[in-house]
Amino acid sequence: MNSPMKNIPLDVQLELQDMYEKVEKLLNVDSKLDPPVEPYRSKYKAQAILNDMKTMITYHMDDLASDDPERPLIHAMLGSVLLTAGTTSLDVEEFSTGEEQLTNCINTLEEFSLHPTCIIFVLNALNQLGVLWSERDNPKKSLQFLEKSEKLYKDFVCNNQAAVKIVSPNDLFATSEKKGDGDEKLEKTHTLTLYYLAQVFGTLGQPLKSALYCHTTLSRQLESKEFDPIDWALNAATLSQFFATHNGFKEARHHLAAAQLILERHKETLDQQEGTEEEKEAKQERLNHRSADVARCWAKYGLNLLQMSHSRLIRLSNDDVPGGETVPNVDDGSLTLKNLAANSSIPAGEFDNLSFPTLELDVFECKVTDKPANVFDEARPIFLNAKEWLDKAKSYYTMENHASDAVEIMQDMSRLYQNLIFFEEDEDRQSKMHKRRIDILEEALGELNPQFYMPICRQLWFELAETYTELFEIKRQKIRNSDEGPTPHALQKINLILTKGIQHLNNFIQSLFVKGTKSLPDVIQDDLVRPVLLAYFYLGKLYREIIVPDKEVQIKNLNSSIDAYQFIVKYCDNHEEAKNLMNAELGICREMLELLPIKLRRMSEA
Fold it and tell me: Closest Cα to residue 181, out of 169, 199, 189, 163?
């Protein structure tokens, strides 16, 4: 303790100090060695000691005068004991008891909540109650405690511009060498408040606020220089994904660059760390794993930037941007985080400084733009950068050890090509990129056993069918633009493309058949309704495009096309929600069901 207190006898103070050190040892050392059959043995012992400490301190509080200068200190001692008792009760799953002890802690310190002797204990108790109510699936109540903690910290800082001594549990009870850590613990406690607020705002469906709190948490961790570098890098990279999907590409790139720098610094120090070979291998494996995750985030950044560029140019072309004119390389008001903030309660100015000014990140940021691409020569560097990161991620996420992740990486590779194709004007090069997509997706499919990876196989079947359909459209358009008719070889290639597409569509549809039957369920699962109906839509299209000399085969293909369109119309007529999902395609289906029977009748009569 700081010095002998007049209200508590010295022998009692020394006994409290001894009891505190026993509690510390039980909670931080002995509890880790408790047997599985008694996982809370040490914590129960600590609870008993804490109850005795509470009794001793309370006994000496009863006769304190209202103006006694030791009142804040003795209240802090009791608050500290109640806080530790409350968190220990939560640890042993005595939640109601823990809630009561934490509430008592806050009530005990209410009079001195802004006093430097008590502030840490109040903030910690509010944080713990915030976490408790979050775990009880009541984020609104959790938010009340956490926002109170945030406000209390701000008020304390505002009221104490001059240096004051912040008291921690060590200052109250521990030996002299453990004292003086109050300032550090206060800042750590507030950082935790911000971290919890980020989680709660995410749960409450306020992602912008959640992102702001995440960034502030990361910034404070950097300032304190006390953080796990791998966790920090992963959190920064994860936050970048939110920014990228909300067109905050400048902020996304900055956070990815920060993640990369922190990982590279950590890699440099890894060899210098002490430990057994097994421990060093485990640390290296963790670094490799998370470096691959950050690489995937970089790739997602590039993919999102290409997708946004694609959508932006289509939108601007619909707004009658003159043909052939270069689209200005500027945002049009709907592509910024600030624009999103305008529709929320967050001041736009809060998005001005989402950066880490103490980190030198230019060397990483200059490797890829944060501006939308307008032409192929601008899109290609984005594509190449993202592809490079995917290749790095693939070296860790292999099919042998991480099949699901490896397939996702291959799908992202396919989507990169798909978005680059939009900027490519040469039909032959477009075809080559579609074929590259097909090679990637079919390689992934060939590595998977549908029995164990059916949902992924369905995705691949559907993506392959879409790719074959897009490739067919390019080939058909090329024939239409040619002055000469298609050669037999060209027709053969087109029919092969159509047949492959049909094969993948049928595989997708048949994978959803009711077990033991050859039909789909009467009601298709909600998230599969549009994919299934689109699969039939593509079937209707591909079957009617096959060119064969055999009239019987032509008739069979036309009937298959009609069957596909009829399935869509019938399902939509019986399910209103499906009709809304297929609004654009449904009119085409009805039109085809008027035209194709006529064509079929003429073919049969010829």
Answer: 169
Q: Under a CB-based contact definition with an 8 Å cutoff, are residues 446 and 399 in contact?
A: no
- Distance, CA of 553 to CA of 603 (rounded, Å): 11
Q: Is 525 helix (H, G, I), strand (E, B) or coil?
A: coil
Please write the tens of the pLDDT for every residue from 199-234: 999 999 999 999 999 999 999 999 999 899 999 999
Q: Which token pair is 513?
A: 């058949």
CA distance 460 to 376: 27
Asked if pLDDT for residue 113 goes beyond 80, the answer is yes
Please state, in angstroms and as integers, the Cα–Cα distance from residue 312 to each residue in 81, 319, 415, 424, 483, following that order.
Answer: 59, 11, 17, 16, 34
Calculate the alpha carbon distances from 276 to 33, 187, 267 in Å: 21, 34, 17
What the block records as the tokens of 142 is 């959790």
Q: Which helix (H) or strand (E) holds 465?
A: helix 450-481
**What CATH number should be reported for the domain holding residue 191?**
1.25.40
Rounded (10°) CA dihedral 56, 59, 62, 64: -50
Q: Find all residues with CB under 8 Å of 391, minimum gap 6, and list them.
A: none
Proportion of the chain in helix, strand, coil states, percent, rounded to 5: 75, 0, 25
179 in any annotated domain: yes
Give the chain's end-to-end CA distance (angstroms, integer): 106
- Tokens representing residue 477 in the block: 């358009």
Q: Residue 463 is encoded by which pair of tokens?
A: 């993506």
pLDDT for res 448: 94
Residue 179 has pLDDT above 70, yes or no: no
User: CA–CA separation, 88 vs 100, rounded Å?
Assistant: 12
Q: Count Cβ atoms below 10 Å from residue 248 Cβ, excluding itself.
A: 24
Task: Confirm whether 211 is domain-assigned.
Answer: no
Residue 454 is assigned to a structural domain of this protein: no
275: left (phi over 0), alpha (psi -120 to 50) or beta: left
**Which residues, 6 or more positions from 225, have their beta carbon under 8 angstroms from its beta carbon?**
none
CA distances (Å), 198 to each of 158, 191, 236, in order?
23, 11, 13
Instruction: Give the Cβ contact number of residue 265 at 10 Å.
Output: 13
Number of domains observed in the structure of the chain: 1
Residue with tokens 């299934």: 532
Confidence of residue 549 (pLDDT cuts 50, 70, 90): confident
Strands (E) across 148-256 are located at none
- SS3 (DSSP) at 582: coil
Is the separation of the CB atoms in 508 and 559 below 8 Å? no
Residue 76: which of 2, 142, 161 has the closest Cα? 2
Instruction: Give the pLDDT band of residue 302 (cuts 50, 70, 90).
Output: very high
In residues, how long is the chain?
A: 606
Measured CA to CA, the distance from residue 533 to residue 510 in angstroms comes to 13
Exposed/middle/buried for residue 556 (C-beta within 10 Å: 0-12, 13-18, 19+): middle
Query: What gap in Å lies between CA 402 and CA 34, rounded to an integer?
Result: 35
504 located within any domain: no
Alpha carbon of 122 to those of 109, 153, 435: distances in Å?
Answer: 7, 10, 63
Range of the domain at 150: 1-200
Burial of 44 by CB count in 10 Å (0-12 exposed, 13-18 middle, 19+ buried)?
Answer: middle
